[in-house]
Design a protein that fits this description.
The chain has ten helices and ten strands. With 278 residues, the protein is of the alpha+beta class. A four-stranded antiparallel beta sheet has the order 1-6-7-5. A four-stranded antiparallel beta sheet has the order 2-3-4-8. A two-stranded antiparallel sheet has the order 9-10. Strand 2 and strand 3 form a beta hairpin. Helix 1 packs parallel to helix 8 and helix 7 packs across helix 8. The longest helix has 20 residues. The protein is globular. It starts with a helix and ends in a 12-residue tail after the last strand. Bound molecules: zinc ion. The site of zinc ion has 7 residues, from loops.
Length: 278
């Protein structure tokens, strides 16, 4: 499933063709949404926001198109009248005079009023967005040490959208490796230094991934690996997907484990700490 940085990049792409443009033609593929086609036609898009893995396309009449891509949904933007060459189901088509923003395959799509956005069950359940520019390390520490989260294993917490929205599977492995923390450790076991290190890495790795289109390795290291002829998939991560390869820090082999029914990658040596001593 795409994670926060990928959703935000898709939102930026959609925003580039829609924001401040009149939407002159609207087609909504799901039957219950047909009735909104008329109400959105001729309106302008004011913003394309994300909340975790949900995208909110806001119109100037107060309506919001809510979409969650789950595993399969995919946005395309094209210059009109071109359409992508795909066998996928078209769910949303928003056409400006010059461009089209098209959502294929997603099924979790709604048109909401402002009130509907405020009471939406998913939006109400999720935590602050991991890419929210106003989110601070202190707030993350506060969440880590709160009653709801402090007794959860980090490996499970770092997939939970109620903890931080937009977090996901590759970010989980990369953040815990960078913070030198064992996925089985719980926030309640971490000392002040470890908590702060984790909070800082949470912010810096997710923001870096957004800036660099999915590269979580520090820029200098990514550049060196690229120069050695490594592919994007090979150079982008420090630990994710690197089972059996040497840890970049200590040369021990990277291990794969299943946690929360998803693959987690870790270095048993670097991440031996449960945070009490380091
Ligand atoms: Zn290591």
């Amino acid at each position: 499933m795409p994670e926060g940085p990928e959703i935000r990049l898709a939102a930026d792409k959609v925003a580039r063709v829609l924001v401040d443009q009149p939407v002159v033609e609207v087609a909504l593929g799901l039957a219950p949404l047909k009735r909104f086609e008329k109400r959105l036609t001729g309106r302008r898009v004011t913003a394309v926001d994300t909340r975790g893995k949900a995208m909110l396309t806001r119109f100037d009449n107060g309506l919001t198109l809510y979409s969650h891509n789950q595993l399969y949904g995919r946005w395309f933007t094209m210059r009109r009248p071109k359409l992508p060459d795909t066998g996928r189901q078209l769910r949303v088509a928003l056409h400006t005079p010059s461009h089209s923003a098209l959502l294929y395959s997603a099924s979790d799509i709604e048109v909401l009023s402002e009130h509907g956005v405020r009471r939406h069950p998913f939006l109400n359940r999720i935590g602050p967005d991991i890419l929210d520019a106003t989110l601070t390390a202190d707030e993350i520490i506060e969440r880590l040490t709160s009653r709801s989260f402090r007794n959860r294993a980090l490996g499970s917490l770092y997939l939970d959208q109620a903890f931080l929205a937009g977090n996901g599977n590759y970010l989980r492995s990369e953040i815990l490796w960078a913070a030198r923390l064992n996925p089985s450790a719980k926030p309640t076991q971490l000392n002040e230094t470890a908590l702060r290190r984790l909070a800082k890495q949470t912010l810096s790795i997710s923001r870096r991934s957004y800036r660099t289109r999915g590269v979580t390795a520090p820029p200098k290291q990514a550049k060196e690996r690229k120069a050695l002829g490594m592919s994007y998939e090979q150079y982008r991560f420090q630990v994710y997907g690197r089972e059996g390869l040497d840890c970049y820090e200590c040369a021990a082999p990277i291990e794969r484990r299943t946690m929360g029914s998803r693959n987690l990658f870790l270095c048993r040596v670097c991440q031996a700490s449960s945070g009490r001593t380091r």
